[in-house]
Design a protein that fits this description.
Helices cover 76% and strands 0% of the residues. The radius of gyration is 21 Å and the shape is globular. The chain is mostly helical and 206 residues long.
């Protein structure tokens, strides 16, 4: 089994090659990093195994990526975008979740014998589809110098609300798996937990 140092050197070498290749065809380097992970990962060529060392490297990669993204923002800038965050961002999440739930309900009514989709399952799927990768999208915007553009600010606002929405979704979705007669109390408790978590994040995060 390869050591942590060998895995690091392999990933660095493959990443440098991928970035040069993708730059030469006018594609973002971020796509090169993703391609490297797919090609040399455990489910393709298998050069990088699914081990503890690999997972640690992946966690460090996420930390460094989020740190580099955090350098692009300030708290006053985020406060000034609150209308976009809670306006456009809320609308995007609600529209996605609502659309998936409606489609799931219609499919259940039409193909009930072959496709059994519950409202709870449709809600969980809609919540997952409503999310985007903030790290990847912000990195692409930063590379294109589009963070300060009008569309860039709107995109960032939507992404920020998605990050906030993850907290209540992670609390609510497990509550949907409870028995129907207890789901009301479970959802009520889940909303209280979500409110407490968001308060801690928004107030304590300062």
């Amino acid at each position: 089994m390869a050591t942590g140092l060998e895995l690091t050197l392999l990933l660095l070498a493959a990443s440098v090659f991928a970035v040069v290749l993708f730059r030469s065809i006018n594609l973002p380097p971020m796509l090169g990093y993703l391609a490297v992970g797919i090609v040399i990962g455990p489910y393709a060529l298998g050069l990088v195994p699914d081990s503890h060392e690999t997972r640690y490297l992946a966690e460090f990669g996420v930390v460094f990526l989020m740190f580099s993204i955090g350098l692009e923002f300030s708290l006053p800038k985020l406060k000034s975008m609150r209308r976009v965050v809670f306006g456009l961002g809320l609308a995007q999440v609600l529209a996605t979740v609502g659309t998936v739930m409606v489609v799931g309900y219609l499919l259940h009514r039409t193909f009930a014998r072959h496709l059994d989709i519950s409202l709870a399952g449709a809600f969980a799927l809609g919540g997952a589809l409503a999310m985007s990768s903030t790290a990847i999208v912000l990195k692409l915007l930063a590379e294109r110098l589009e963070l300060e553009t009008e569309h860039g600010k709107r995109i960032v606002g939507v992404l920020l609300f998605q990050d906030l929405a993850v907290v209540p979704l992670l609390v609510i979705v497990p509550a949907l798996a409870t028995a129907p007669e207890n789901i009301g109390a479970a959802l009520g408790l889940a909303f209280v937990k979500a409110a407490v978590l968001l308060t801690v994040l928004l107030v304590g995060g300062k």
